[in-house]
Amino acid sequence: MEKILAFTSIRSDYDLMSPLYRLLHEDKNIDFRIIVSGAHLSHAFGYSVEQIRKDGFEILLEIETLLSSDTGLSRVKSASLLLQNSLETISTFSSDLMIYAGDREDVLMYAMIGGYLNIPTIHFFSGDHVSDGYIDNPIRHATSKLSTAHFVTLEEHKKRLIRMGEDKKRVFVTGNISLDKFLDFKPATKVEIKEYFNLSDILDDFAVMIFHPVTEEIDSVDVHFENILKNLEQRNIKAFVSYPNVDPGNNKIMNVIEKYKENNNFIFYRNLDRKIFMSIYKHAKFIIGNSSSGICEAASLKIPAINVGIRQTGRFADKNVIFCGTSQSDINIALEKALSLEFNNELRDLVNSYGDGMSAAKALGLIKTIDFKKIIAKIEDPLEVEIDE
Fold first, then answer.
1. Strand pairing category for 59-63 and 30-37
2. Interval 65-90 mean pLDDT
3. For residues 364-383, b (16+ Cβ closer than 10 Å) or e, as one string?
4. Residue 285 and residue 208: Cα distance in Å, rounded?
5. pLDDT tens digits for 345-374?
6. Residue-wise pLDDT tens digits, 105-123
7. What is the predicted pLDDT for the residue at 45?
């Protein structure tokens, strides 16, 4: 039986990968385990480890690494705690394959562990690139250089990795696994959503808002967040608003949430049952903020996605995405476009470039047929890697 070990430290990366985790868990020839850390184990960020338990996956280890701090220094310290407290368990479990996703500091630790313990690794969502200047970019690319193989979303991402010196035999285009969850999903009704949140007023048209801090905008991230809320309030648009992630600057956003938490226009949430969140998303008129979900997932629902500020800029985006500045007037103009009948009519035949909803099955097929041990040694010279123009 093949032993496969996955890692997750935050709700977002878990949701990205959960369709594949389900297939791995259900395969009788695979012993699949997960190591859980970070925000999953923090009640302040929703204690989302409960969702993992509810999904029935076997957790090999839970590591409390998240420091109660709002600085870049705390993220480095958290990474060091992760490295120290997971290493022995990973070594003892002696998996045949390690898989991880994204661009947070924890994946860099796991890539390094895999390299030193001679365990093949797959980096999911590698090869992406954002122009916001955030640390996630170099973390993502550094993790890729340490990883055995790459399961990427777009051909563009494959080309980028090859230009970074990765041999094409290591790179496989699978599409975005997170889109699989939309394929056969039957959402709860608006009445059921209203009952879940115990709402007394009418729940008709509404938006989803997900906004996270970015280092380059940290001095005014609270102003940007509030500018979105003000615009929605002025238009009397009800919105389900997510709490921020654990990045520096999150306390400023939480302070704004405290200011607006009694406002009937907004339903703030830390962590939601997956079915409820997806149902909200499915019924939403649009998504606004700066989440990667707006870039990668909203097109599957054929709804507008307003991206506020520099986060996510430079990434490939389908025509439903509207990039705008952070001022009230910039956001107002973007909302005007997103709500227009003409723009929404243009999205009726939209096909999501990030995937077809069958990515987890593609990834599983590759995992079961590729001999990763044969390519674990990274002996290729970047000067000799063939680049397709």
1. parallel
2. 88
3. beebeebebeebeeeeeeee
4. 8
5. 999 999 999 999 999 999 999 999 999 999
6. 999 999 999 999 999 999 9
7. 82
Residues 6+ apart with CB under 8 A from 186: none
- The predicted pLDDT at position 388 comes to 67
Distance (Å, rounded) from C-alpha 281 to C-alpha 208? 7
d(CA 179, CA 355): 7
Question: Tokens 């940007």 label which residue?
Answer: 224
Q: Are 16 and 177 in contact (CB under 8 A)?
A: yes
CA gap 32, 63 in Å, rounded = 18
Cα gap 342→309, rounded to integer Å: 24
Total-model pTM:
0.87
Query: What's phi and psi for 308, nearest 5 deg?
Result: -100, 125
- Specify the DSSP class assigned to residue 181: G
CA-based nearest residue to 105, from 251, 7, 222, 4? 7
Are 381 and 164 spatial neighbours (Cβ–Cβ below 8 Å)? no
- Exposed e or buried b for every residue in 225-241, given b needs 16+ CB within 10 A? bbbbbebbbeeebbbbb
Q: In this structure, which long-range contacts are made by residues 258-261, counting pairs with CB atoms below 8 Å and at least 24 apart in sequence?
A: 259/226, 260/226, 260/229
Average pLDDT, the chain: 93
Q: DSSP assignment, residue 197?
A: T
Question: What's the token pair of residue 197?
Answer: 């949140």
Specify the residue for token string 């302070």. Answer: 255
Paired with 76 in beta bridges are: none
Higher pLDDT, 218 or 177: 177
Contact 46, 271 (CB under 8 A): yes
Quote the Cα angle for 40-238-232, to 5°. 100
Instruction: Please provide the DSSP assignment of 332-361 as one string.
Output: HHHHHHHH-HHHHHHTTT---TT--S-HHH
